[in-house]
Specification:
44% of the residues lie in helices and 16% in strands. It has a single domain, classed as Glycerol-3-phosphate (1)-acyltransferase (3-Layer(aba) Sandwich). The chain has 245 residues and is α/β, with parallel strands linked by helices. The chain is built from eight helices and seven strands; from the N terminus they run ααββαβαβαβαβαβα.
């Protein structure tokens, strides 16, 4: 019975995703400043959490200032990390949060089509030129007043434990000259693990750390030092079962 209830929730979530994607595509051509997209997308994020029976707990939102632009660096263990951090930051950012995602997600029917017309930023790490194009687009977005979220591990952690970071997000912060906000997402891997359809009700805790000033220099040594610092800050905010081995 529990399995049937789980599968039914997944079917409902998939159907809701298709509907939201089609509705988003319907106004994409005339939504030049993405105002409708952000409002519509935030509703989608909230509905996703509610339909999956996920309670969202947010800590540290007072560290954010209204009107400020940030580069958020977070750990990544589940697809529900995305709606969780979007909803958690909305009170201060008004829902304007650009997510950097793998270009391969555009191959997913409906959702991928919506991503293609969205203000979110695709990255193709295997192809250097396209990766640089995505990074340049992200720098421009931040400089124009949109905050960006980067899951710096590059992919979801299957164990739930924090993995090593990639340098791209810190290079972006250095070029954009914007503060980095460490974010720890706790418990999402217990809701839905990577590459699994075993959906569980529960809670996700989003812990927003204090902003870290951007580096003065845009060089590898400075960026790697910043990367290690932010990695340590996020690790300290995570519970023991999510800390790196």
């Amino acid at each position: 019975m529990n399995k049937l209830a789980t599968y039914w929730r997944i079917v409902r979530l998939c159907g809701m995703t298709v509907w939201y994607s089609l509705f988003g595509l319907s106004f994409a051509l005339f939504d030049k400043h993405h105002r409708l997209f952000y409002r519509h997308g935030l509703n989608f994020a909230r509905t996703s959490l509610r339909m999956a029976n996920i309670a969202l707990l947010v800590e540290g939102e007072d560290h954010l200032k209204e009107g400020e632009t940030y580069v958020f660096i977070a750990n990544h263990t589940s697809i529900f990390d995305i709606p969780a951090i979007w909803v958690a930051t909305a009170p201060k950012l008004g829902g304007r949060l650009r997510i950097i995602y793998k270009r391969s997600l555009q191959l997913i029917p409906f959702l991928g089509w919506e991503l293609m017309v969205s203000p979110f930023i695709p990255i193709e790490r295997e192809k250097l030129r396209r990766s640089v194009e995505g990074l340049n687009k992200a720098v421009k977005a931040v400089q124009e007043g949109d905050s960006v979220i980067i899951f710096a591990e590059g992919t979801r952690s299957r164990s739930g434990r924090l993995k090593e970071f990639r340098r791209g997000g810190f290079h972006l912060a250095a070029r954009a000259g914007k503060p980095i906000v460490p974010v720890a997402i706790v418990g999402a891997h217990k809701i839905l693990r990577a590459d699994s359809v075993d959906l569980h009700a529960g809670s996700i805790r989003v812990i927003i750390g204090k902003p870290v000033p951007p580096p003065d220099h845009d060089d590898r040594i400075t960026e790697r030092s910043l990367m290690k610092h932010v990695h340590a800050v996020i690790a300290a905010m995570l519970p023991e079962d999510q800390q790196p081995l």
